[in-house]
Recover the amino acids of this structure.
């Protein structure tokens, strides 16, 4: 049997071999997310605010898709590492089934609750109408994004990250071409941006399916006579559900943060829009780190299945170092050029005044976030996603939102609305402490007992 590169290639080379295609594709993804918002900002600020307020719901949908795929990826990687081919195939097929269920759930919730969602955030009728137009399209047609995420993760989980770069690249290029056409030529505005996004996702999904059927020889997708395997589905969500919950918590956090900003910040909706711009910009920093860790998860899972402690620990150690370096570079960029970053979005003087301290203060949290993300990915690969979930809950709902609420109210009382942004560095320091405590426990119970160079 030919050895899988996840178990034999030098670890440093393997990490970049696995991660660079994912990083490249995620950077393209970040680029078209930003360009999407840049085109929308050219319509008017209300359009940009509508897209910003829609972000928590989109984040929730993508979190369901990504969290499910994390469970599939880790479970499949362990099966392949243990040379259990039939189990790996069954995990992959049940993962595709779960992607279909995820689409149906997102479509029903998005179409029925969109209006309630926007009314809970703002009373500006124009923003509500524009937000409904955008969100109903991206959720109602979300079969494309669920399929794209799942089939790309099947490629990544078998060491074929390069193909996921092609699929995401295609989706991004299609989106970039169609955005100005639908927004300005067909004069569809925010709805045009949503249509372009969905078409791009559909193209990427089709290409990912093709690659899995024709180029991915480590798994075999045969659906004839398929019946859901509830034991495997339970195992997938034992790993993936904490990731889904983490993303859901992120959506709740963004929703609550928007509410706090609109009520207590002196600039109200403009502050929420600046916060939305921050999320668009930080994707250029966080996406490479997420790409790095998406490449590391199958390495850790495979070598855990193969009982190889030295390769597993080296992969984790290097991922922490590389992730931290990327985040420090990002922090330097945000500190040095916030005005230039904001002007990309046609920022007004008010937006510059609000957004500059927002970017400069929040980016200080980057110096702690790299290690948290890298170690959190190792929790997922080792089947301990619950630690990442607990960490996310504590970080965002115990530290971040209460700190933001207290600082926003106090800042409003003394005329300094910028205090609210310090909630991010405070929460990230708390998160790093918790992450290190959890990793110490995992190392003692799961990693240290493994054979140094793998089972014979």
């Amino acid at each position: 049997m030919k050895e899988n590169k996840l178990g034999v290639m030098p670890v440093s080379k393997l990490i970049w071999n696995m991660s660079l295609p994912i990083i490249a594709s995620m950077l393209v993804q970040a680029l078209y997310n930003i360009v999407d918002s840049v085109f929308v900002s050219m319509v008017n600020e209300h359009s940009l605010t509508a897209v910003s307020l829609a972000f928590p719901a989109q984040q929730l949908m993508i979190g369901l898709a990504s969290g499910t795929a994390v469970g599939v990826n880790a479970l499949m990687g362990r099966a392949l590492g243990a040379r259990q081919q039939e189990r790996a195939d069954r995990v992959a097929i049940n993962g595709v089934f779960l992607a279909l269920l995820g689409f149906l759930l997102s479509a029903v919730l998005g179409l029925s609750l969109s209006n309630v969602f926007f009314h809970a955030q703002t009373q500006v009728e124009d923003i509500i109408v524009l937000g409904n137009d955008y969100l109903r399209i991206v959720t109602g047609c979300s079969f494309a994004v669920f399929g794209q995420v799942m089939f790309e993760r099947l490629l990544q989980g078998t060491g074929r990250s390069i193909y996921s770069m092609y699929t995401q690249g295609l989706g991004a290029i299609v989106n970039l071409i169609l955005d100005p056409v639908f927004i300005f030529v067909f004069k569809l505005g925010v709805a045009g941006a949503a249509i372009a996004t969905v078409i791009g996702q559909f193209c990427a999904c089709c290409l990912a399916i093709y690659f899995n059927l024709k180029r991915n020889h480590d798994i075999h997708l045969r659906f004839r006579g398929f019946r859901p395997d509830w034991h495997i589905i339970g195992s997938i969500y034992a790993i993936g559900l904490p990731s889904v919950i983490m993303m859901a918590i992120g959506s709740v956090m963004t929703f609550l943060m928007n509410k706090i900003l609109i009520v207590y910040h002196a600039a109200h909706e403009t502050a929420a829009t600046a916060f939305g711009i921050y999320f668009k910009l930080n994707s250029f920093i966080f996406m490479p780190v997420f790409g790095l860790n998406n490449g590391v998860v199958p390495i850790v899972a495979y070598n855990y299945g193969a009982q190889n402690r030295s390769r597993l620990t080296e992969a984790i150690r290097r991922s922490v170092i590389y992730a931290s370096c990327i985040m420090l570079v990002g922090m330097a960029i945000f500190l040095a050029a916030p005005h230039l970053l904001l002007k990309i979005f046609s920022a007004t003087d008010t937006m510059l005044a609000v957004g500059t301290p927002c970017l400069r203060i929040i980016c200080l949290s980057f110096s702690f976030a790299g290690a948290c993300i890298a170690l959190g990915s190792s929790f997922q690969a080792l089947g301990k996603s619950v630690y990442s979930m607990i960490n996310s809950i504590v970080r965002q709902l115990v530290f971040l939102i209460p700190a933001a609420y207290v600082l926003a109210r106090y800042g409003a009382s003394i005329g300094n609305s910028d205090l609210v942004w310090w909630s991010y560095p405070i929460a990230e320091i708390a998160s790093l402490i918790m992450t290190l405590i959890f990793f110490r426990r995992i190392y003692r119970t799961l990693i240290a007992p493994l054979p140094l160079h793998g089972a014979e």
The chain has one domain: 5-447. The two ends are 15 Å apart (CA to CA). The first helix runs from residue 5 to 8. The chain has a mean pLDDT of 92.
